Amino acid sequence: MSVSEQELDQFRVEVSAWLRENNPGDPGFLLPESFMEVGTDEQFEYLRDWQRKVYDAGYLGMSWPEEYGGGGKPQVFQDIVSQEMARQRVPFMTNTIGLNWAGPLILQQGTEEDKKKYIKGILNADDIWCQGFSEPDHGSDLGNAQVKAVKDGDDYIINGSKIWTSLGSYAKYMILLARTSNEGPSKYAGLSFFLAPMKTEGIDPQPIKKLTSEYGFCQTFFNDARIPANSIMGREGEGWQVAMATLMFERGNVGGQAGGLSMMDINVNDVLELARRSKRNGKPALEDPLIRDQMVQFLIEAKSNVLMGARTKIPALNTERPTAIAMSGKLRGSELKRRFCQFAMSLQGANGGRFISPEAVDGGKWQRIYFNSFSATIGGGTTQVQYNIMGERVLGLPKS
Fold first, then answer.
1. Residues 268-394, CATH architecture
2. HEC readout, 364-395
3. Which of 16, 23, 184, 285 is 20 to 30 Å from the Cα of 6, by its Cα?
4. Does the pLDDT of residue 1 top 70, yes or no?
5. Between 2.60.40.10, 3.30.70.1060, 2.40.50.140, 2.40.110.10, what CATH number should domain 130-250 receive?
């Protein structure tokens, strides 16, 4: 389906006007920065209502098939919506795991029944999704997952626990990696992947209080929880391959996500504005040559990340190492944010040590953002794991 530049320009004007008119604005309480910080009912309902409104307007899942609840339009329309959302800094879509990981996975590998059952609920936020990958005792060693799934007639009985379950207390479904066997040539061979219903007896998500006093994460306990056998995706023992496909979506290595913002857009320009307001020796910090140099480096890096995203769509610019840019996106983006948030705190001098205090700069916003920035360097594979992936899969370096 070809689309003219004039049609796209008209669509951008339409979207921009709709967002200006419908932006829900300041709710009067603290909003989370991402789905990983949604910890109160008022935050959750505010964000779910916003996602429903965007979907009802036709601006979410625009490239997903119409027969499952999507818009059936070229991806470029959804790209324009996401760009305008970032420009106008509207709230993010709370069902991030469903929109960006579970939904694309189901569309790619799910059965026709799966697509009809799950996709629309993901888009309109009726069905919130969470992720059951990490476990308390195994860190980044996902292949060593030990939550057990034992087949019993038409059910699987699940026992064990998962951790860092964002939105676990609100979710209706979980993408769950569990061990169905200890046999096979490797530890990966005994893993299976489930689309598990959370509102099940024996599944108990317990919120975890973070350093910022927020409750975005849970530890989810499974105590003889029975889930339907038909909730398995693929065949028993094929869970590792399905999990790897999920991580490709989570890390942004492949497209197919539903669109919208996945977090509040705190960026380098915000740090630049803070540098103008901050003082060094009685003058604006931005007048300090060292501060200016560091800000320029951040701005160059941020711009290069934007251009990298555009470059992935031009095959001629990706011939030498075709997967390098896409596979490094999560690493580059999460580490840049962590570093510029740390720099923003250093701009505050001694005030950088204040967090929950009336005297804190911008109400302690930067301290909160800095602490939370570490979650993106851990979720979806830690920074260290990402370096290993780049070395092994892109540069061809040996594992040891």
1. Up-down Bundle (1.20)
2. HHHHHHHHHHHHHHHCCCCHHHHHHHHHHHHC
3. 23
4. no
5. 2.40.110.10
Give the pairing of strands 217-228 and 232-233.
unpaired
User: Between 73 and 266, where is the model more confident?
Assistant: 73
Give all strands (DSSP E) within the chain, no chain letters: 129-132, 148-152, 155-163, 173-179, 191-197, 203-208, 217-228, 232-233, 279-280, 283-284
For 61-80, the three-class secondary structure string (H helix, E strand, C coil) is: CCCCCHHHCCCCCCHHHHHH
Average pLDDT for 326-354: 88
- pLDDT digit string (tens) for 47-81? 999 999 999 999 999 999 999 999 999 999 999 99
Among the residue ranges 37-46, 215-224, 373-382, the one predicted with the least confidence is 373-382
Please report how many Cα atoms fall inside a 13 Å half-sphere around the Cα of residue 394, on the Cβ side: 18
- Per the annotation, the verdict on 250 as an active-site residue is yes
Are 118 and 103 in contact by the 8 Å Cβ rule? The answer is: yes
Which entry of 250, 287, 320, 359 is annotated as an active-site residue?
250
pTM of the full structure = 0.86
Q: Average pLDDT, stretch 98-120?
A: 97
Cα(374)–Cα(157) distance, rounded to whole angstroms? 34
- What is the CATH number assigned to the segment(s) 5-127? 1.10.540.10
How do residues 320-337 score in pLDDT, each as one tens digit?
Answer: 777 777 778 888 988 999
The answer for residues whose C-beta is within 8 angstroms of residue 233's C-beta and 6 or more apart is 105, 109, 110, 114, 193, 194, 195, 239, 242
CA-based Rg of the chain, rounded to a whole angstrom? 22
Distance from chain centroid for Cα 293:
31
